[in-house]
């Protein structure tokens, strides 16, 4: 297990030294040691004193196997917890980074452990990029190797150009990848269009407030025409397949294309 931990630390170090990912250290609201007594199928942890924890940066993807593996790893074990949030969420949970030592080895992160084995996906959420970037790097490696859930074609990234692949996926958390062919904007919303027909082709959308947040994070969505981008989130097909961007971490640049002008228009087009 030690070599896995060392590899993981190397990945995290590489992510931290990549200029595009350089961010302040992962903030910690509070650190404590707890004993875990239960883990449910949503990967919610319960400690011996009744506290409920949510593993920060992890999307369990409905995988009961992830909970089984995590429970075998953590149940009854004293763990170290770095709370990311200072307060509980509306379900009475606190987001936390969870660590435990195995047989005297380097303390391991539960999020890392699950994601690198393909037992869970990285979850976009509010939080410093320094906390999330290593998780996305580990997920990319798991996806490339076909580990765990990534061995199932249903979990693969949906090619944005393949319209039929969105059928039956409404309301699901999905990963979509493709080239942005144009960027448009209304008074209240920006559209990253992955095809020429806005009501039919996939698009990622962001409010004007979120555009400011993206810019503050060093990501200008208006400059992404021609870029190959990976978007993840809840699929909404009411007005054509779309994902609303709520956090900068939902948007990953896979490869930048040649610079193209910002179109600034979202004039309606008819489906072919």
Describe, in plain words, how this protein is organized in 3D:
The structure is a single chain. This protein has helices at 2-17, 64-74, 110-116, 129-145, 208-216; strands at 30-39, 44-47, 52-55, 58-59, 78-83, 93-100, 108-109, 121-122, 158-159, 173-179, 182-185, 189-193, 203-207, 228-236, 242-244, 251-255. It has 272 residues and is an alpha+beta fold. It has two domains: 2-149, OB fold (Dihydrolipoamide Acetyltransferase, E2P) (Beta Barrel), CATH 2.40.50; 157-255, OB fold (Dihydrolipoamide Acetyltransferase, E2P) (Beta Barrel). A hairpin with a 7-residue loop joins strand 6 (93-100) and strand 7 (108-109). Helix 1 (2-17) packs across helix 4 and helix 3 packs parallel to helix 4.
Short description:
By secondary structure, this protein is of the alpha+beta class. The chain has helices spanning 2-17, 64-74, 110-116, 129-145, 208-216, and strands at 30-39, 44-47, 52-55, 58-59, 78-83, 93-100, 108-109, 121-122, 158-159, 173-179, 182-185, 189-193, 203-207, 228-236, 242-244, 251-255.
